[in-house]
Design goal:
The structure is a single chain. By secondary structure, the chain is of the alpha+beta class. It has a single domain, classed as Aminopeptidase, CATH 3.40.630.30. It is 28% helix and 31% strand. The chain has an eight-stranded mixed beta sheet with strand order 1-2-3-4-5-6-8-7, with helices on both faces. Helix 4 (126-140) crosses helix 5. It is globular, with a radius of gyration of 16 Å. Keywords: Acyltransferase, Transferase.
């Protein structure tokens, strides 16, 4: 297994990724609450018969950071400097979340990427930049080989993200994930490290 780099902060321009913290509960919950209708069609849900697993935000954040230290996932929040005064780095607001999950080493060396953004910040190039930052970190710092993104066919905004970054379409997986109360079809997009040259951040330039 590669050396685990956690906690880690990544930044390009006005977009930054930092670890989800136990103290983010109020800001994270406020963002989720004002975006309920915006996010509901894409949110993961528990299938029938599954245990609810309800827990506090603080417990979730601590668990995810523990898993990050073991190299199993990377739970980032997305922050954006365009809404803050110049130089006020500590005040950059939380505008979304990006999670690298299912990290696998050995002969596979791959992971999944998932993300959401506050509707009021959509369309500013924030998510493509965040995905590029996380992907480059996974390839060049963690030594992963393949990154995969699963997107519902109806999610046009998310499809534009992978198109902009050059992710390769690999096909559709019927009833792949339990989303918004039912098993939903997803389109699978992927990139291997050999396909990205100097990385995705470089593609943004």
């Amino acid at each position: 297994m590669a050396t685990i780099h956690w906690p880690v902060e990544l930044r390009h321009g006005q977009v930054a990724l930092r670890p989800l913290r136990a103290g983010d509960g109020a800001e994270w919950s406020a963002a989720r609450q004002r975006n309920v209708s915006w996010l509901r069609p894409w949110d993961a849900t528990q299938p029938p018969g599954a245990e609810d697993g309800a827990r506090t935000f603080r417990a979730m954040a601590r668990d995810w950071n523990r898993q990050a230290r073991y190299g199993r996932m990377l739970p980032f929040v997305i922050t954006y400097g365009g809404a803050a005064a110049p130089g006020a780095r500590a005040k950059w607001p939380l505008v979304g979340q990006l999670t690298v999950s299912g990290i696998t080493y050995g002969s596979a060396r791959w992971a999944n990427l998932g993300y959401w953004v506050d509707e009021q910040y959509a369309g500013r190039g924030i998510v493509p930049t965040a995905v590029a930052l996380a992907a480059d970190h996974c390839w060049f710092a963690l030594g992963l080989h393949r990154l995969e993104v699963a997107i519902r066919p109806e999610n046009k905004a998310s499809l534009r993200v992978v198109e902009k970054l050059g992710f390769r379409y690999e096909g559709e997986r019927p009833r792949f994930l339990h989303i918004d109360g039912d098993w939903r079809d997803h389109r699978i997009f992927a990139l291997n490290v050999e396909e990205v040259g100097p990385g995705l951040v470089a593609r943004l330039k």
